[in-house]
Each structure stands twice: as C-alpha cells, then as structure tokens.
Write a structure and sequence with these properties.
Elements: E1 2-4, E2 7-11, H1 13-26, E3 31-41, H2 44-53, E4 63-68, E5 71-78, H3 85-94, H4 99-114, H5 124-136, E6 149-152, H6 154-160
Antiparallel strand pairs: 1-2, 2-6, 3-5, 4-5
Length: 164
C-alpha cells in the first residue's frame, strides 16, 4: 500500500515487479555474452523450427547458434535469465509453436520467475523503487493486460467507511 497525495494505492507487488522486469527484457537491457555457451540437444521438429526461427529469440536477448546437427547453444542471455537458464533451455528445446506461445513462455520464465513472490520480504528501498516505476507507467498493467494498481481517492475512502 502506498499514499500519493490524498490517494491511497494498493499495488500487487508481484505483478508490478513482473511488468518492470518484462519491460527490461523487451528493451533488451543487460544482455550478457556467456563465456561458456549452454549446449543442448533437440528433436528433429524443434531443430527444423530453430533453423527457421532462431532469430526470434534475439528479441529476448537470447542468441542461438547451431554448432552441429540437432545441437544448439545459447551464446547470450538477459541478465535476468541467468538464474533460470535451465528452464530457458527446457523451453527452447521443446518449443516449436506460434509466436504467442513463445512470448508467453519466455516471459513467464524470465520475468515471472524472477519477480518478487508472495511472502518475499521487500526492503523499503526496493519497494520505493518499484513504486516509483509503477507511478511513472502510462498504463500500469501486467503483460497479460491485468491491472496491478488500485487507487482509492480520499473521498472514496471516507465514503466507504461512512464519513463525509
């Protein structure tokens, strides 16, 4: 909860942090070239898909190369993706679907898995940094379109508790 002026705001901190991280992923902030590429094997259908569509992963900061048939490697990752690299490899090695699923799958792995979770302790500085970014957003919604910010004006709050 936060106060801004005479208004009270309730913020879903997980969804807000998720949106902030998602924005960082799609703006390709903090892409890291890996010193040792992450190798993985794929089935034929995924291999065919990656040969035609591996460039799509670059939008997420994931550079792929194919050193040999049916073997791929990740050369770059967004910094947010480092803690979930195994999940990213698992996703890539099994995905050969449409772009919507690619976007939702990678988003869920990179942004959602890295965001603050229910019950996580959030220090004051981190909370204030998140709120500052939330209040600067033109449209405070998660990438799925749900709002994560509820505003109660002083008038609405007074009315809801029987004060005028």
């Amino acid at each position: 909860m936060a106060q801004k002026g005479n208004d009270l705001y309730i913020v879903d901190q997980h969804a807000a942090h998720e949106r902030i991280l998602y924005d960082e992923v799609i703006t390709r902030k903090d892409i890291q070239r890996l010193m040792v590429p992450l190798k993985f094997e794929v089935d034929k259908d995924v291999d065919d898909y990656l040969q035609e569509n591996s460039y799509l992963y670059a939008d997420y900061g994931i550079e792929l190369s194919q050193p040999e048939p049916m073997v791929w490697e990740i050369l770059t990752l967004p910094a947010l993706g480092k803690p979930v690299e195994k999940q990213i490899i698992d996703f890539i090695s099994h995905h050969c679907g449409d772009l919507t699923e690619l976007d939702k799958g990678l988003y869920a792995i990179i942004a959602c898995h890295s965001a603050i979770r229910d019950g996580d302790a959030v220090d004051r500085m981190a909370a204030e940094a998140i709120l500052k970014k939330v209040f600067a957003m033109e449209d405070p919604r998660c990438p799925h379109g749900r709002t994560f910010l509820v505003r109660l004006s002083e008038e609405e709050l007074r009315k809801s508790v029987g004060r005028t």
